[in-house]
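Researcher: I've got a protein sequence and the SMILES for flavin-adenine dinucleotide. Could you write out the 3D structure of the bound complex as structure tokens? I'd like something to compare against our soaking experiments later this week.
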Amino acid sequence: MMLGFLLARADVDVVVLEKHADFLRDFRGDTIHPSTLELMYELGMLEEFLKRPHQEVRELAGQIGKDVVKIADFTHLPTQCKFVASMPQWDFLNFIVEQGRRYPRFQVKMQAEATDLIEQDGRIVGVSAKTPDGVMEIRASLTIGADGRHSVLRERAGLEVMDLGAPMDVLWMRISRRPSDPGQSLGHVEAGKMLVMINREDYWQCGFIIPKGGMDEIRKRGIEQFREEIAALQPFLRDRVSELRDWNDVSLLTVKVDRLQQWSRPGLLCIGDAAHAMSPVGGVGINLAIQDAVAAANVLAAKLAAGGLREQDLHAVQRRREFPTRATQRLQILMQNRVIRRVLASAQPLTVPWPLKLMDRSPFLRRIPARLIGMGFRPEHVR
Ligand SMILES: Cc1cc2nc3c(=O)[nH]c(=O)nc-3n(C[C@H](O)[C@H](O)[C@H](O)COP(=O)(O)OP(=O)(O)OC[C@H]3O[C@@H](n4cnc5c(N)ncnc54)[C@H](O)[C@@H]3O)c2cc1C
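Model: Sure. Here is the predicted complex with flavin-adenine dinucleotide in place.
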């Protein structure tokens, strides 16, 4: 959506296909980081954007056993917004669509599911898509695969995927929020258990992290036992965990971390999770996908508008984004293996590890994770 917006703004005809009828789905995280807010500022949309309901997270803290530790402090970042905006992704996407309507070349087709690529003489020249009115074909000088971590387009293109592995999945659910609850988003870690809670004003969006493939075991223990585990981690939820009536109220989100060897073929470029599925660690995936969109628009827009796109231009986008992607995934995998895997496997009460103790005591050190999470490696700027 973001790349569609940026290209239409640069006078390129764009059609964005979305397979669902709306964006109201609960599976994609909500964190708009300072790097993305900076892009909104560069596009002159920040003020309007911040009028939408959101929470501003200036510091990240987590609870390990009984100890609360401060982990990141965003208030010193050299950006317009020194906070992470927590906003449901459907609000964010609706905002971009509304902004895109200012440009006559921007078209969004909802309920249009790309099912295959159209290939001619070894070149991708468009897609076929399933719509309520039947199958449609869309021809294009460039097709972008931005269809997420289960990308159909990258699979149809036969692009080689490197699976980098993830030791966990996430159970995703809503529990109502009361005015007397803590205001900030929370993370709580105990031996064998991790719970992340995002404040969405009238409810908590909860993510309960489980070992990969562990859902059957949890189901076997029963929903009552599961409610008890949530209440034990966050006792103020005890009077509300019954809102999880059965397993239909709990979605299983499978976590993947992978990367394409080659992000493009003649006529096709993959970006975002379709090029590199991100772990939820650090809540950076949406922001990285947007950085890809900005880099792609910077490299491709003028060439698309003038009709002179070459295969090397698609390679140039990958070259530009490869280092930030690899570096971020390397950090995510380090956290997955060093922290998450160990916590999920441990049966002994946890103590705060020394690097986190150090971070908790030193406001200066807390600026480092803030920079990595908030701005990432080599942030892009809108041209
Ligand atoms: C449990 C979990 C929690 C996460 N939490 C966060 C977080 O808090 N913050 C963060 O920044 N990142 C988070 N991430 C990572 C983040 O969700 C992804 O990195 C990010 O959504 C990637 O954006 P994208 O646009 O590439 O793909 P997506 O967000 O997956 O968007 C793909 C879009 O394409 C549509 N689509 C799919 N297939 C087709 C098709 N064939 N035809 C037409 N449309 C199609 C989908 O409906 C969707 O709208 C989380 C990931 C997981 C697994």
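Model: Residues 17-20, 28-31, 113-114, 146-148, 152, 170, 207, 253, 255, 272-274, 278, 280, 283-287, 289 surround flavin-adenine dinucleotide (CB under 6 Å). DSSP finds eleven helices and 20 strands in the chain.
Researcher: Great, I'll pass this along to the crystallography team.
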